[in-house]
Write a structure and sequence with these properties.
The longest helix has 37 residues. The chain is mainly α. The two termini are 17 Å apart.
Length: 478
């Protein structure tokens, strides 16, 4: 059941009315949310609903043991057991065959013919996202960041909350659980705000991302026949596609949550306008970046602090290797993470990694923005080649094609002008409203109501005009 499908609309409308009409108390509302979340998850992966339920129960039990343990050794033992259990299931479902394939490649070096066979493993949808929620919950209890153990019901809602379980954001327990303690009341301003953010998410997904996907899929299938300028254009389009797809999902998830009276954390802050590498990662997939910063990078940087800047470099590179590995059991994802970490080295050596970036809210960019934004955009466009490639062989050949003399030729791949137009329309709207939570949050609020609603109707018209068969979200496969 896709968030951009008619089946989800019917599901959510039914859930919404039950939630507010029958939810006389916060507990009843939470029960409705949990049942709705399990129904939603079952539509994706009913076979693994039992895994989600069992893992939720086990980690809740372990969390209680960490909290109640009086001795430090006991707390550490329960924490390690809980984290180990979550990681084992994640490693099995997502990475087991990757390890087997690479072990077999190692045996090949020594001429060993009897090799281990691969398993037919079905990947549980959303496991990377809810596993990180579980781990952060256990770590927050251990570090006394979660002062009060929630009820099993509230914890289960936190883990399985349906707008976020497929592709995030990866919320933390403390702020999310605050939503569940009080009864949520219908709010007209919040309802309007939520609908507008859903509309903007639908526009980015259905109009921009899905239509670009029709171009990039054909381009990547025939990349070996294309010249360098066409290959670079394909990488640029994919960067915009991935952003529109993933941030479109996030906008929909946040908007749906607002309709339910629940606040979840943002996941994007206009990363297409980042001015350097560090600025980009503060704006892109914020919930994952902040999660890894707190639970991986910070402990590593403390551990390596005696090595000064070189210790910081080691911490950054290890952190981004985890980022790459989190995305998938393929070498091109791991190399993507490694290169992402290496890109921080000039900032670290120059002492500019944590330097605050000056930004303006004017429509006309400053000289610094005109210099920094295009350079950063091109850097991450080139990095995207490692992300969308099927393997390292494709990535290598794709780079060779871009950096060949054919780059100076006109692109030999057709790209529809209307797709370029709607992409630029999205980018310009976001640029002009980059100081807002999302691009159309306050657009035309001071103008005539006819003009404002006319703009919304134009967006709705474009959604239906460009709508094609619903496509899944790219990050759902992670």
């Amino acid at each position: 059941m896709l968030l951009n499908s008619y089946s989800f609309i019917f599901f959510f409308i039914a859930l919404y009315f039950i939630y507010y009409l029958c939810g006389k108390t916060s507990k009843i509302q939470n029960i409705i949310l949990l049942i709705g979340s399990y129904v939603f998850y079952s539509s994706w992966s009913w076979e693994f609903l039992s895994l989600l339920i069992v893992t939720t129960g086990v980690t809740y039990f372990v969390g209680n043991k960490i909290k109640s343990a009086e001795k430090e050794k006991a707390k550490v033992l329960w924490l390690r057991s809980g984290v180990f259990m979550v990681l084992v299931q994640l490693l099995y479902f997502k990475y087991f065959n990757f390890f087997i394939e690479n072990f077999n490649d190692f045996l090949n070096l020594f001429g060993v013919k009897d090799q281990l066979g691969l398993l037919k493993i079905i990947f549980p949808i959303g496991i990377s996202f809810y596993s990180f929620r579980m781990i952060s919950y256990l770590l927050d209890i251990r570090n006394n960041k979660l002062k009060e153990i929630p009820s099993l019901l509230d914890y289960a809602v936190f883990i399985a909350f349906f707008p976020c379980i497929i592709a995030g954001p990866i919320d933390r327990a403390t702020p999310f659980l605050k939503n569940l303690k009080i009864k949520r009341e219908f709010s007209s301003p919040q309802f309007t705000d939520g609908l507008k953010q859903i509309l903007w998410g639908l526009f980015k997904k259905l109009v921009v991302a899905d239509n670009i996907a029709g171009i990039t899929s054909q381009l990547f299938d025939s990349y070996h026949t294309l010249n360098g300028s066409a290959l670079l254009a394909g990488a640029v389009l994919y960067f915009i596609q991935l952003y529109s797809d993933f941030s479109g999902y996030t906008d929909m998830a946040i908007g749906i949550s607002k309709l339910l009276g629940i606040k979840i954390q943002p996941n994007f802050n206009y990363p297409l306008f980042a001015q350097n590498v560090a600025d980009y990662w503060r704006r892109w997939h914020i919930s994952l970046t902040s999660w890894l910063t707190e639970y991986v990078f910070t402990p590593l940087s403390i551990h390596f602090r005696d090595y000064d800047k070189y210790g910081l470099i080691m911490a950054i590179i290890i952190n981004f290797l985890v980022v790459g590995f989190w995305h998938g059991a393929e070498w091109h994802y791991i190399v993507h993470g490694l290169v992402s970490g290496i890109m921080f080295i000039p900032l670290i050596l120059s002492g500019k990694m944590n330097k605050k970036i000056k930004t303006s809210n004017n429509f006309i960019p400053t000289k610094e923005e005109m210099k920094n934004i295009p350079v950063t955009f091109i850097l991450f466009t080139l990095l995207m080649v490692l992300f969308f490639s099927k393997d390292m062989e494709m990535a290598t050949k794709y780079y060779q094609g871009i950096f060949s003399l054919s780059f100076f030729q006109l692109p030999n791949f057709p790209i529809q002008k209307e797709i370029i137009a709607v992409s630029l329309f999205m980018i310009l709207l976001e640029w002009g409203n980059r100081d807002k939570e999302y691009a159309i949050k306050e657009i035309l609020v001071e103008k005539n109501i006819v003009l404002r609603w006319g703009f919304y109707y134009v967006l709705v018209f474009l959604v239906f005009l460009f709508y094609i068969a619903p496509k899944g979200f790219i990050y759902a496969m992670f």
